[in-house]
Design goal:
With 131 residues, this protein is mainly α. Helices cover 72% and strands 0% of the residues. It has one domain: Four Helix Bundle (Hemerythrin (Met), subunit A) (Up-down Bundle), CATH 1.20.120.330. α2 runs parallel beside α7.
Length: 131
């Protein structure tokens, strides 16, 4: 795993941009997936900056636990947003995740909620990037 926080931050920025673009094109499931990815990557950057070593995880919830262990208190609302985003890691991509084609289960409202959750986590993670 690449250990450069700046790389993870840039990758998070790109994923958020992809999410916003896909939302505008009506690919809501793709927008939700890229929101989860953007949040995951900014949290990995924060873990690295705070002296931790990221484990091979794709869970924003686990990454927040690592940050808490590294001394960054995690507000309950941020933990809730992370759990919501983690659901999109599989469900937005695979029909066996939600019981059918993801494009039937995702809409603009869900994409908007995912973008808002991602932005809240990125704002929180910015505190972790300051050392």
């Amino acid at each position: 795993m690449k250990m450069d926080p700046a790389w993870w931050t840039r990758a998070s920025d790109r994923d958020l941009g992809m999410a916003q673009g896909l939302r505008e094109l009506g690919f809501y499931e793709g927008a939700a997936f890229h929101c989860q990815q953007a949040a995951e990557k900014i949290l990995k950057a924060a873990v690295l900056v705070r002296g931790g070593a990221t484990q091979r995880t794709y869970s924003c919830t686990e990454l927040l636990e690592f940050l808490a262990d590294l001394g960054l208190p995690v507000p309950g609302e941020i933990a809730t947003q992370a759990r919501k985003l983690d659901l999109h890691y599989v469900d937005s991509r695979y029909p066996n995740g939600v019981g059918g084609a993801p494009d039937k289960f995702y809409d603009r409202n869900i994409a908007d909620e995912a973008i808002a959750a991602c932005q809240a986590i990125r704002e929180f993670a910015a505190k972790g990037l300051e050392r």
